[in-house]
Write a structure and sequence with these properties.
about 70 residues, mainly beta, about 10% helix, globular
Length: about 70
């Protein structure tokens, strides 16, 4: 059985780590911060759903089924 997915805060603040999907307030995200500099997000920061990620030579696109698409800067 899967755990229920928490909905985002009313202010839209990120509640989850976009690299591991764990709550952002939890300690131990040093490795995630390092990965974030080189890799696209793997989990939605608002709901922790696994995202569909497409990487090409010019950047990346990540899509959450609930919150839409994010692209590289």
């Amino acid at each position: 059985m899967t755990a229920p997915v928490q909905e985002p805060a009313a202010d839209g603040a990120a509640q989850f780590c976009d690299q591991c999907g764990a709550p952002a307030a939890d300690p131990g995200h040093e490795r995630c911060a390092t990965r974030r500099t080189l890799e696209p997000p793997r989990f939605c920061a608002l709901c922790a759903r696994r995202m569909v990620v497409q990487v090409d030579p010019f950047g990346w696109k990540a899509r959450c089924s609930r919150h839409g698409e994010t692209t590289s800067p």
